[in-house]
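Narrative of activities, Objective 1.

The group set out to show that a structural description can be obtained from nothing but a protein's sequence at a throughput compatible with the screening campaign. Below is one input-output pair from the validation batch, recorded exactly as produced.
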Amino acid sequence: MQGRAQMHGEDSGVTTDALLRGRVRLFQPARGARVSLDPVLLAGFLAPPFGRFLDIGCGTGALAFLLLARDEAATGLAVELQPKLSALAARGRDENGWRERLEILGGDVRALAATLGAGRFDLVATNPPYRTVDEGLPSPIPERALSHHEIALALPEWLDVAARTVRPGGRVAAILPASRTIDLCVEMRARDLTPVRLRTVHPYADRPASRILVEAERAGRKPLTIEPPLVLHVEGVRYTPEALSLLGED
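Output recorded for this entry:
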């Protein structure tokens, strides 16, 4: 990811950042809920075609934008609770020329679940709040607190939405801390979402996993495939070749 200087005037407090060597532009707060590597890893984990997708808790749009960039035939709907972030996502969508391919809806996805439609999506993907309310103190910055802690959207709640909106045979995918692997898989199975692919993400080859990537299939019967680990860094080098490839910097 490449960053650009903070903008001034009426855009003070907003930065413009580039993903995939400038193929994707992202507007985000200079302080607050800024994109991490997680949506890049999740988008790279998923194989196209994506069809019609739903991005739950899209933030400023990184995951949705990356899916659109990787599959020119994909279309999507992205839902975001926080008005400032959804406005920045809409701005980024328009800047990237994807107005006809991506709808951005502001609001609480739990309240909107009925209007999203049952079985409407081929793929539901999310980089959700990843810490429970018991895991450390939330950030004093409200945007960041809502993005990182399950204050307004907990794992069972977004899975309820995902299970309702994905079509039979469709996919549900997420990235979460590795410590939540059991929680995620158990809650998926309780909703007839069968985990079919799992990959751990490690900061270095000799360190424990920090993240888990999981793809499930609604009403699926495929066996679970545990894929080789994704290692992000090599000592003395910023990223491994695979990580650079995911970032579009290879």
